[in-house]
């Protein structure tokens, strides 16, 4: 077996204890595995590391747009290694790479309330979608082995990341709700940066009478 | 069956259509591109396709034994994967091996551009007024002959400091006067950056372009390209003359994709020139079998012999290295060396050790810098050392090639370590005595027991010197 990220040969750990049971298929080598940093406890609402209680950002949101997002759950730090990983997986399109994180992602997702929830992806612009050939949110939902139900469309393809933070928060909503629902919803995306994207989507759901919206991202 | 087996072991390029449409798009000439890389808008692309300037070919080959990527030659099945492809609505196979340059898929095409562009024929393109030494001239003549003939291979086996670049000038002159397209490929970005200004001043009227990972220009539309070997993944049957520098260097030596791509980038009839100071087994074998014609230049351009490394047994080396120190005998040697007019280049097996030893020497009031591959200040530190702003530079094998300092002594600490193979040691020793003003320099390999690479490196340097004397 070779490491999914660096392609180095992984020597399986066969001991007397697991001699009769074939050891679990290892996907990552120890070096690559150790580069992903699990998030330490932090803000109770958004998983920001090193915070006690509710972080300043979340306080700002609650003051100005209360109750949009009940909670965000994330798995790993968005460190340099994760940035390279995302670049190769999402932008270059090395689709299979995500399997490297399956175990951790499924494990964290299962800790959320999710059985009665609709799991919705964040849509990509038409252009990005046909360029990459897949939607990153849907890839994550597929990894979780759950059904993805798309509820939104993109309005325009303006680049979010090029704007300042204030502009991003107050800018027009890039999404359009296509399927109003009355069940709790989990929004799934790859990265939570300022939380604006998921709150834009959440605000549309709430307006249409959705009881609760949470989000799940791999990186934070 | 035999045919299918052959498809696995040989990498021929039968799948490239014999395309010879004359055209005026130099940016498409001899290219093999993904759809998103084509420098044309959709209507122009349609025109180019209808005029047979570009032809679509499938990106992956499907044989009974598995897939092969036509762009990088990958046939390791674990480096192919599937993606639920939104465009096709089914699972499609893609190549993971070359994905850093964009994704090649079974359901998508590569676009191959006709290389039939007429390149300028220049009169007297060479502005270099220097004079070649006797050995340089001999090699230069042979290179020019291969280029004039328009086909064949030639290995230039020239010691470090032989002046390889200048030897190419007569051949390049021949190529540009007869309207040929040339690529000089090298495994290292540093070398591309260093060569470009030198070649520009030697051939001021030749259209020239440097191509590497983050080069400002990526058009690849010039008559003369100076490129990293990786960039050749985007070329097919493009060049009349292909010069590959340092064919023994990592990563070229290790990466089959680079061999595949450089073979494909040359036209079916083309002149291939390989440059090396330290041939590897594969080349030695071809030299012995007489299937690879070779010119051998055992002397440096200044005519002085190569410094022969001294082997110094240092039994307590590991004991001190483990503690981030060096043995007192070595420290004394360095202090003594610092009394001379030369700078000192110290090679360590690892980045960690390089940093530790630099720190340790600083405790003894020496002015020291350490540099490694990922160091953001690498270029500045190297430049400052070259300008003699400080006396000691501690480094790893990254500085084994390409870089020249006028007057240095070279110490290799723990020279028996496996990172220092024969080629690396010969290259490292070749850093000393580069300048005609100071053609000597001490090269010392500090070791804990003689290893084969140590002895082989010294033997091969002494052999060069013996051969050089006979001239
Ligand atoms: Zn790995
Ligand atoms: Zn928060
Ligand atoms: Zn497809
Ligand atoms: Zn490939």
Polypeptide structure, described:
By secondary structure, chain A is of the alpha/beta class. Chain A has 8 helices and 6 strands; from the N terminus they run H-H-E-H-H-E-H-H-E-H-E-E-H-E. With 471 residues, chain B is α/β, with parallel strands linked by helices. Chain B is 30% helix and 22% strand. Chain B is built from 13 helices and 20 strands. In chain B, helix 3 runs parallel beside helix 4. The mean pLDDT of chain B is 91. The chains are: A alpha/beta (220), B alpha/beta (471). Chains A and B meet through helix 5 of A and strand 5 of B. The complex binds zinc ion (4 copies). The site of one zinc ion has 8 residues of chain A, from helix 1. One zinc ion binds next to loops of chain B.
Strand content of chain A: 5-15%
Please give the radius of gyration of chain A in angstroms: 19 Å
Q: For the residues shown, what is the average pLDDT of chain B? A: 91
Shape of chain A: globular
Q: Oligomeric status of the shown chains? A: heterodimer
Largest beta-sheet characterization of chain A: 4 strands, parallel
Q: How widely separated are the two ends of chain B?
A: 53 Å
Number of helices of chain B: 13
Can you lay out the helices and strands and say which pair or pack?
The complex is a heterodimer of chains A (220) and B (471).
Chain A (H helix, E strand, L loop, with lengths): L29 H4 L22 H9 L6 E6 L3 H12 L10 H9 L7 E4 L4 H7 L3 H8 L8 E3 L10 H6 L4 E3 L7 E7 L4 H12 L5 E7 L1
Chain B lengths: L1 H8 L22 E2 L8 H9 L3 E5 L1 E4 L2 E4 L10 E6 L4 E6 L13 E5 L20 H16 L2 E7 L5 H14 L4 E5 L2 H14 L5 E4 L12 E5 L10 E6 L11 H10 E11 L4 H8 L5 E4 L12 E4 L3 H5 L6 H10 L5 E5 L3 H13 L4 E4 L6 H9 L5 E4 L12 E6 L8 H8 L13 E5 L4 H19 L1
Parallel strand pairs in B: 8-13, 8-14, 9-11, 9-12, 10-11, 12-13, 15-20, 16-18, 16-19, 17-18, 19-20
Antiparallel strand pairs in B: 1-7, 2-7, 3-4, 5-6
Bound molecules: zinc ion (4 copies).
The site of one zinc ion (ZN) has 6 residues of chain B, from loops.
